[in-house]
Amino acid sequence: MLEAVRAGDLDASVIDLSVRRIAGLDARRGSRTAGVDLDAHHALARELAAECAVLLRNEHDTLPLRGGVRIAVLGALAEHPRIQGGGSAHVNAYRVDVPVEEIRAVAAAHGSAVAYATGYRLDEPGSEELVAEAVAAARQCDVAVVFAGLSERWESEGVDRDSLDLPAEQVELIRAVAGVAPRTVVVLSNGGVVSLEPWHDDVDAVLEAFVLGQGGGRAIAELLLGVRNPSGHLAETIPVRLHDHASSLNFPGEQGHVRYGEGIFVGYRQFSTFGTPVRYPFGHGLSYTTFVTRSVSARVTGPDSVTVEVEVENTGGREGKHVVQVYVATTAGPVRRPVRELRAFTKIELSPGQRETVRFELGRRAFAYWDIDAGAWVVAPGTYEVQVGPDAHTVEVTASVELAGEIVAREVTLDSTIGAWLEHPVISAPTLQALGFADATISEEHMAMVRSMTMRQFITISGLDLPVERLQELAATSRTH
Predict the structure, then answer these.
(1) Rounded to whole angstroms, how far apart are CA atoms 83 and 137?
(2) What three-state secondary structure class fits 254?
(3) Coil, strand or helix at 420
């Protein structure tokens, strides 16, 4: 079969079916392997899924759902869950939790009734009949839970999305349901972020489940009904518009080429540095309890290394987990830096009223930039601010440290700018002397113009009798340092 695949004799559907059969055979073999507890593995899958889902929005304390409420579960993804990526990411799961079934099971234990309506069919045009059925169910409920997201038709290996939008039939369903239900919750299932803009303000809560794997259905049910407390945080920004991304002008490129024109300003670095409005920032994630960062301290503990201690308190009414995020900000060095960069994080669990001090060890790479001349990571001498907050846009507490860093001496020539000469740690002072600037009073505006000229230009247009041989000697000295 592999030879046939290489020869191109099988189409994609046959290849996929064959791979599934082989994977299924492997799974059956694994289930008979002595010492493999597949039920324990599934329990772990549920736990991991619950840790990863991100509660984006929770107006009016809509979540967790209270006992005794009438719940309408709507949307085909509640019955046919998206648990994994497309293409070679496929695996055969030992078992798969179906969200609507799991919600029914968990809700029953809380005295809640659950109705279900399809609302839409995956990868099919919208149906007025299905929407009407879902709306009717929503009218009879206390809370409507709409499942929406992307199937493998919309995102899969080897396929680039050209939009962040949800399928139109799903947006229609969400807005129609939100117009009649007392409370509306949206549960998203998608590999990459989707736009929330056409409907976000119409709903009360949004749970971003992404692609949670085989245990995702039970995890979602337990998160919605408060058996588990959400603790996931966004690992990417949810923008207002696709074109707000710095990469949107460069990707997918032209004539077979992509320019990585955004440089280091990718993802949250661009959004936070330039103050671009976002729907939800990198690092965002809500909980059913509340956390406050009380303090942060930072002290230099070695050559360009810093120990950071952060005190966090659970100020809410239930146990929960919180992701402590440590960012570093600086303007030191010759390169442009993002307003802040994530340098460490960890998840901690706290009971109500409990405080904990978390320690982070930041090595020199947490403060370094890549120096293209030196071909190495370099820590520039200067001030570095350690910032702690719940996401990349929000700073709660700060602490500053001074780092000795390292000075990179760059070779200069007569074609280098005078600014480069004056920044050289060895020849800066003698250059000022040679140019006659050491004892002169020069305005900042004039000096800025001088610094932008090359030394050769300045010699030519200044009209001064400058010691060119001395300047050449200094240039040679720069090469030995």
Answers:
(1) 26
(2) strand
(3) helix
Residue 352, preceding peptide bond in cis (omega within 30° of 0): no
The pair phi, psi for residue 68, each rounded to 5°, is: 85, 0
Torsion of CA 34, 35, 40, 41, to 10 degrees: -70
Of 54-68, 131-145, 398-412, minimum mean pLDDT range: 398-412
Give the start-to-end residue ranges of the domains of the chain: 37-228, 291-403, 418-479
Token code pair at residue 109: 């234990």
Q: Please write down the HEC assignment for all residues of 80-116.
A: CCCCCCCHHHCCCCCCCCCHHHHHHHHHHHCCCEEEE
Whether the predicted pLDDT of 29 surpasses 80: no
| Residue 473, amino acid | E
- Residue 205 — very low, low, confident or very high, per pLDDT cuts 50/70/90? very high
CA separation for the pair 235, 52 (Å, rounded): 10
CATH 3.40.50.1700 fits 37-228, yes or no: yes
Q: In this structure, are residues 309 and 358 in contact, taking their beta carbons and an 8 Å threshold? A: yes
